[in-house]
Amino acid sequence: MNKQTRERKLDLQHKIFRTFDECHFQKSDISQESLFVLQMSEGSTVSLPLRAVCREFGIDEDSNDGELIGLVDKALDFINVLRPGDDLPLEVLTGEASWAVDNNHRQIAYNRVTMQLVTWMSGSEELITDPEKLLQIAEDPGTKRKINEAFDEVSEKLGMGKENREEVINLVHQVADELAYIETLREKYRLVQMVDSKLQELRRIYAHEKGVLETVTQVIRLIDDAMKRFETSFDEIDANTGEIMSVLRNFTTQRQYIRTKRDDLFRRLRAWEPLFEQWSALTPERDPETVKLVRETYQFLAPRFMKVKEWLLMTKVQDGIASGQHFKDEKDRMNALKGKMMQW
User: Fold this and answer.
1) Which domain of life is it from (predicted)?
2) What confidence tens digit (pLDDT) does each residue in 169-184 have?
3) Residue 72 lies in a domain
4) Alpha helices, DSSP H, located in the chain
5) 260 and 323 share a domain?
6) pLDDT at 6 over 50
7) The model scores a pTM over 0.90
8) Which range of residues forms the domain containing residue 117?
9) Based on the domain organization, do 155 and 257 belong to the same domain?
10) Cβ-contact 342, 303 below 8 angstroms
């Protein structure tokens, strides 16, 4: 990788990226395509698809600028705006996270891993992810003694010998450090559950107002799909890191797996943040602002979780008649539509 990339700087050389004082890269709210956004001298703002800019100005993907632009597309999954000269996020360079976890989540992850070791030693490995239960068990003096014994046994099992137990302890901490990000995201996901809980309350409040009730019900159905997908992701991570000896033996591979899942969850949850803020401040009650937020939530969820045919019906998105397009058959038309849908 070139020097500029190693130093994290988005040092683009082509004149198109250096001509305008005010320019940046961001994702399209609709298609999630990367855009080059620039401020014109007369004050207007122009948004251009980044890939189209590269084609128009002959920027080869194997050139220095081409490589950096490839990283821009990935970087915008982790930050809202990126300007020429900015630092690229670590996720696209080293695989590390560019965001921090707190000591609480580090401790939760460490307790989880050490409890796996203790239960593995007993012959019946168990994965515990509930923070309160983990803390209660971990603080027990008997558990602390068993953890120390587990370090010795794992050292022997991995062929390191008890004299190298510090290496095992260090390895356990490395695993916990990676899983701390998953635990942070698991807690962030609880905000999705909070939104669902308040929607359930609103369904009761608006039970006799048909128009609002229908919208609330639609949003609940969509958020239920969203929660199932998030929970499936967390279940997959737990299943793939549920055998602690396998994780320790194959740490490099497991770390890559955890980071890939971490980045996917971060990207998906990050899109919810404006809604989290609004719903956290909301007291469920009959109010025009409440109805407005419900509708905004529907607009957020529908293109992400509604089935393609339903979304077509609700929004009249290009159906081949209104747009004047012609398709061979229904399958061809639906495939074209799927390309416009956000994948979550």
Assistant:
1) Bacteria
2) 999 999 999 999 999 9
3) yes
4) 3-6, 50-56, 64-75, 103-121, 131-138, 141-157, 165-205, 210-240, 244-249, 251-270, 273-281, 288-305, 308-315, 330-338
5) no
6) no
7) no
8) 108-281
9) yes
10) yes
